[in-house]
Specification:
Number of domains: 3
Largest sheet: 11 strands, mixed
CATH class of the largest domain: Alpha Beta
Radius of gyration: 24 Å
Helix content: 25-40%
Number of helices: 18
CATH superfamily of the largest domain: Alkaline Phosphatase, subunit A
Shape: globular
Length: about 625
C-alpha cells in the first residue's frame, strides 16, 4: 500500500475553493472557523482517523530517521506534514485527556494517572485521574455536528461506567480501561489489577480468539466503520494502540526481521538515530546528545546479557513494525470503500519511550528490588525466556538504556519533563474532498506545538471550527499552508506539571525541573531550538530570563491548582502501594519476593555449612 501514490493523482481542483475557504481566516481572525450552520454538508466533511501510539520514542518512525520499517506511516508523512517540536505529557492519561479535550490536564481532572496519585492530591478536582464530566470531548463535539464516532484501544481516563468512552461521545467503543495489559490474552500486565478490564459499548467483554492487540484494535475499527458504510455521515475513528507499552510483545515474523540490528548496543543506536533525525529533516543539524546516567556501558555487559538485550530491542522494533502493518490494513480498507480521498490521518505518541525496569536490573540480573514482580509473573505464567522473547506468555521491557536511544539525542525518557519524555512524533496527512490537507507535502514544521492543539485542529479539519468554547489549544491549520509559520507568539506560555516534574515553554526556551529519587531537584533553563538535547543550562548566563520564566510557571501553577508532591514521593512506589491498598493479594506476591530474596542469602550459607560438616 502506497498512500501517496493512491492519493497524489486524485482530482485536486474539484473542491479547491471549498477546501481553501475551510482554512482561510474568518471575519473573526480565526483560521478555518466554519460555523455549524455553514454550507459545508456532512457528506463533504472529511473522515478523520486519530491514531495514538503508546510509549513510542521520538525517533522510532522511518520518517523520523529510524531503521524500523514503518512504510504506511511514512507514506502518510510523505504526502503530509511532520512536526519536529511537538510535545505531550510525559505519561499516558494526562496526554489522552488533553488530546481529547483541548484543555490542560489539570482542568480535565487528569493531572496524573489515577494509579500514581497520592491521597493528599486526590482531594483536588485536578487530581482525579479520570476525565471530568464537565469537560467536553472532541468526540462529543463531532457527534453533535453529525459525525459517526468510534474508539478502539486503551482508554485509561476512568473505569466507572459513566466514565467509559461510550459515555463520552463515542457511538461504538472497544476499550481497555487500565494503564496497560498483555497483548496476547486477557490478563493484566501488573499486579495492581486482578484482570485486564476490557469493555465494548460500556459493557465488560471477552477478547476474541486470535487476539493480538494491534491486529484486534484495527479489526474492530474496520468493523465499526463498515457497520454504517451506507450512510452519508463522515466518521471520526480514534485508535489508541497498546504498542509499544510494557509488556513489549510482537509476533515472531515481525521480531525476527531485526535480530541483527541491535547487536552493537544502545550507544551506537543513539548516534544512528540522531543522524537519522537530521537526514530526515526533522532536526536541522546534529545536536549534542544527553546521555542519561541510567545508561549502562554496553561493553560492560556479559555476552549473554548483550544477546538478551539486543533481542529485546528487536521485539520492540517488531512491535512498532506490526502496528504500522495493521495501520496499513485500515488505510487499505478505507481505500477499498472509495473514501481515501476524503480522509485525514493524524498519528502521534502519548509520551516518550518507557525506561522503567519491571523485571531486571540494568545489568540484566533480576535484582532484589524486582523479586515481588518476578514472583507475580511466575504465578501468572509470564516468562522472560530468550528463545521466545516477545511471543505468547513472554514479558519484556526495554529498560532505560534502549529508551534513551529511542529518543535520539534528547534527554531522559517517559515520566521525566525533559525532551525525551515529552517531545514525540506527530504526523498529519490525507485529503479533504480530493485536495491534500497539507499544501507543501513531505515538509517538517518546527514551531512549538502542544498536545491540546489537536482538538481545535480536528475541529477545523471537520469544518466546525467555531465549536471551540473552553479550548486552550491552538489550531495547527496555519502550518498546513506554511510549515514555517507559528501558532504561538513569543509571549505565549505552555505550563506543565506531572508527579512533581515541571516545565514551562516560552518561545525558544524551556524551564524544566525533574524529580530524581534521592537527588535534589533543581530548575534548569534550555534553548530547545538550538539545544534539543538539553545539554547546556542557561540559567546562570541569562538570570533575568530564568526569573521571568520561573515567575510565569508559579503563576500558571496557582491558576491550574497544582499541588506539590511531598519530598519522598516516588511514582513507581506510589503505584505499587496503591495496589496494595486496592488488592491485599499483592502482599502475597511481596511475601513471595521477600522469601525469594532471603533464600538467595540463606542458601549459600547453608551450602557452606553442609560442606564443612561433611569434612572428616
Amino acid at each position: 500500500m502506497d498512500l501517496y501514490i493512491k492519493t497524489a493523482i486524485a482530482p485536486r481542483l474539484i473542491s479547491f475553493c471549498a477546501f481553501a475557504a475551510m482554512f482561510a481566516p474568518s471575519a473573526h481572525g480565526e483560521v478555518g472557523a466554519v460555523a455549524s450552520g455553514s454550507s459545508v454538508s456532512s457528506a463533504q466533511r472529511p473522515n478523520i482517523v486519530l491514531i495514538l501510539a503508546d510509549d513510542l520514542g521520538f525517533s522510532d518512525l522511518g520518517s523520523y530517521g529510524s531503521e524500523i520499517d514503518t512504510p504506511n506511516l511514512d507514506a502518510i508523512a510523505a504526502q503530509g506534514l511532520r512536526f519536529a517540536n511537538f510535545h505531550a505529557a510525559a505519561s499516558c492519561a494526562p496526554t489522552r485527556a488533553m488530546l481529547l479535550t483541548g484543555v490542560n490536564s489539570h482542568a480535565a481532572g487528569v493531572a496524573n494517572i489515577a494509579e500514581a496519585i497520592p491521597d493528599y492530591q486526590a482531594l483536588s478536582p485536578a487530581y482525579q485521574g479520570a476525565l471530568d464530566s464537565n469537560v467536553v470531548t472532541v468526540s462529543e463535539r463531532l457527534r453533535e455536528q453529525g459525525y459517526r464516532t468510534y474508539m478502539t484501544g486503551k482508554w485509561h481516563l476512568g473505569g466507572a461506567k459513566e466514565q467509559l468512552p461510550s459515555q463520552r461521545g463515542f457511538d461504538r467503543a472497544f476499550a481497555l480501561a487500565d494503564t496497560g495489559a498483555d497483548n496476547w490474552s486477557q490478563r493484566s500486565y501488573l499486579p495492581i489489577y486482578a484482570k485486564a478490564n476490557w469493555y465494548e459499548d460500556g459493557q465488560p467483554t471477552i477478547l476474541p480468539e486470535g487476539f493480538y492487540s494491534s491486529k484486534t484494535l484495527v479489526d474492530k475499527a474496520i468493523e465499526y466503520i463498515a457497520s454504517e458504510e451506507d450512510t452519508d455521515k463522515p466518521f471520526f475513528t480514534y485508535i489508541a494502540f497498546q504498542a509499544v507499552h510494557i509488556p513489549v510483545q510482537a509476533p515472531a515474523e515481525f521480531r525476527d526481521k531485526y535480530l541483527n540490528h541491535y547487536t552493537q548496543g544502545w550507544s551506537v543506536l543513539r548516534e544512528q538515530r540522531s543522524q537519522g533525525l537530521v537526514a530526515s529533516g526533522v532536526l536541522k543539524e546534529l545536536a549534542p546528545s544527553y546521555i542519561a546516567p541510567t545508561t549502562v556501558p554496553w561493553d560492560s555487559l556479559d555476552p549473554q546479557v548483550q544477546a538478551f538485550e539486543s533481542k529485546g530491542m528487536a521485539v520492540y522494533a517488531g512491535m512498532v513494525d506490526a502496528m504500522d502493518h495493521h495501520i496499513g490494513r485500515l488505510v487499505d480498507y478505507i481505500d477499498s470503500q472509495g473514501k481515501l480521498d476524503n480522509t485525514v490521518f493524524i498519528f502521534l505518541s502519548d509520551n516518550g519511550a518507557e525506561g522503567s525496569l519491571a523485571t531486571r536490573s540494568p545489568s540484566g540480573d533480576p535484582g532484589l528490588q524486582n523479586l515481588p514482580m518476578r514472583s507475580w509473573m511466575y504465578f501468572n505464567d509470564f516468562n522472560t525466556d530468550l528463545e521466545t522473547l516477545g511471543e505468547i506468555d513472554s514479558y519484556h521491557d526495554i529498560g532505560p538504556s534502549w529508551a534513551s536511544a529511542a529518543v535520539g539525542p534528547l534527554a531522559w525518557y517517559k515520566f521525566f519533563a525533559s525532551e525525551g519524555g515529552m517531545r514525540v512524533p506527530l504526523v498529519i496527512g490525507g485529503n479533504v474532498n480530493g485536495q491534500s490537507v497539507i499544501e507543501n507535502v513531505g515538509g517538517v514544521a518546527h514551531a512549538l506545538t502542544w498536545i491540546t492543539d489537536l482538538t481545535p485542529t480536528i475541529l477545523q479539519i471537520a469544518g466546525v471550527g467555531s465549536a471551540t468554547e473552553g479550548i486552550v489549544g491552538k489550531s495547527l491549520a496555519p502550518l498546513f499552508a506554511d510549515e514555517q509559520a507559528s501558532v504561538r507568539s513569543a509571549e505565549d506560555i505552555v505550563g506543565y506539571e506531572l508527579g512533581g516534574n515541571k516545565a514551562l515553554f516560552k518561545g525558544d526556551y524551556k524551564l524544566v525541573m525533574n524529580r530524581i529519587v534521592n537527588e535534589e531537584s533543581v530548575w534548569q533553563l534550555f534553548n530547545i531550538v538550538l539545544d534539543p538535547g538539553e545539554t547546556e543550562d542557561l540559567k546562570s548566563k541569562n538570570p533575568q530570563l530564568f526569573a521571568e520564566l520561573k515567575a510565569d510557571y508559579e503563576a500558571w501553577a496557582v491558576q491550574q491548582g497544582v499541588i506539590e508532591v511531598k519530598p519522598d514521593y516516588d511514582q513507581r512506589a506510589q503505584v505499587f502501594n496503591k495496589g496494595l491498598n486496592d488488592r491485599p493479594v499483592l502482599l502475597l506476591y511481596a511475601a513471595g519476593g521477600l522469601l525469594g530474596a532471603l533464600s538467595l542469602l540463606v542458601l549459600p550459607i547453608w551450602l557452606l555449612i553442609r560442606r564443612f560438616r561433611k569434612k572428616p
